[in-house]
Amino acid sequence: FFYQGEWYNTDGQGSPVTAETNPLTGGSEFSVGGKRRTVHELAHPSTPVLKKFGKTAYDITLSNVTPLSATGMTWSRSPEKSRFGNETVKIQPSADTGCAWAVNNIAMTCDPEDLLYSQDIYLATVPPDYPATTPIITITLSNNAALGANYTQWTFDNAYMRSGWNTLKMWAGDDTSGGYRDSNMPLGASRIDTGTGFDFTQPCQYYQIRCSYMNGYTLYVDQIRRGAKAHTKLVIGFDATGISASDNVFISGVAPLLAEFDVPSYFTQTWVYNGLYADGASWNRERELYGKWGWDAINHTWNHGATVEGGRKVVTLSRTSNVVTATFTAAHGITIGRRVKAKIHGATPSDMNGTYWLTATTSTAATYTAAGANGSGSGTIYCTTVLSDVFDVVSAENQALVTHEIADTARLMRAAGMGKAAHCLAWPNNSAPNIEMTEVACSAAGVAFGRGGRGGNVFINEFGIDNPLQFGAW
Description:
Elements: E1 2-3, E2 6-8, E3 16-21, E4 28-32, E5 35-37, H1 39-43, E6 50-52, E7 55-58, E8 69-71, E9 73-78, E10 88-93, E11 99-108, E12 116-123, E13 136-142, E14 151-157, E15 164-171, E16 189-194, E17 204-212, E18 219-226, E19 229-230, E20 236-238, H2 249-260, E21 265-269, H3 281-291, E22 296-299, E23 312-320, E24 323-328, E25 339-345, E26 354-362, E27 365-369, E28 375-376, E29 381-384, H4 387-390, H5 396-415, E30 424-426, H6 435-445, E31 449-451, E32 460-461, E33 464-465
Parallel strand pairs: 20-21, 21-22, 30-31
Antiparallel strand pairs: 1-2, 2-3, 3-4, 4-5, 6-19, 7-18, 8-11, 9-10, 10-18, 11-17, 12-15, 12-18, 13-14, 13-17, 14-16, 23-24, 23-28, 23-29, 24-27, 25-26, 25-29, 26-27, 32-33
Helix pairs in contact: 5-6
């Protein structure tokens, strides 16, 4: 493809293409990183995203597979969400505990070199950033058809789970030490061995998926697979281009350093932090990074949150005549008279909780309408404005607001001459809305990829990125 005056190959390495003369024929050829390439090779690179394809290990979606047990749920095989087959196992937990679906005597084996299983699960429900109780999916594998004393469990919580598709991976080399930064596990995932644990070199005879604190969720569970493997690709991005108007280290140091090692990079674009300050010092830095150094500008939503900058703040509540006053512990930073949409949670009585339009009345207070008895709320009460918690339910109003956050920012970027990567976005606070509304808004904006934080990594299989509108990045 042609980019900034040069032809580039499409193998993901970003090596510039140069024209050379063949000394034997006198004809023109192309060179990529010093290696001659034909036009066909440039258009059809030999290196795909995947370095190894997966295959079915055990297909639980088939009608002749009878579960050993299915408790605390309603379940069925459904074509509502298809992945590697026509149907998936639809699970709707009916309790917060005791929800489990298991099969045994399955004689499932993995690739003897990779020792890796994977499974795709679609979540129709948005796991919030700030749940009252953490939702958890647990996958249990055992070589004993009766479970026995030796087995391994992998847990995936709301720091991993995303609305839409999620690829879960269970690997023999996964750490048991725990902690994202202290192990090789993805963010929000952990492994626990009981007894001697599960032996990947021997057939798996017992599989269970358990849902904890997911009452009311809907999941679509696909077949268990021998996991695919992808080539490694590194991109380094930044949410800002300096800590102050006079901080030019990105121009003098960071950009030259990354260019030296051919590492691509980007900075993010919002209205509230960027567009409002057009022609200022930070804006001029962005223009230089974009134009001179070839960085990309990435959509970061209009408000960097749900109608206002995203975050979670402690408040106290007091209600008089169905008008609730939320008092913040410090200045909330919202212009007086401005209305913003936020989620109030953690209050007793519960009729003070919910998603409301709040109107800023002073620098530390905002009001909303919620019917109920006069008096104060008790408990640790939060006002949350991140996208996942506010825009968690599909509605016409929410859809319009989500589309504004994404599509209008993309239009702003293109109009400012920084639209080269307007098909990509980085979720503010690493928080994304309901996947259905996201898909509509991204379609309107021409956005194909959305970087978040959950899972910490980009999970790739035969479909490419498992959830292209919300993949991890740390």
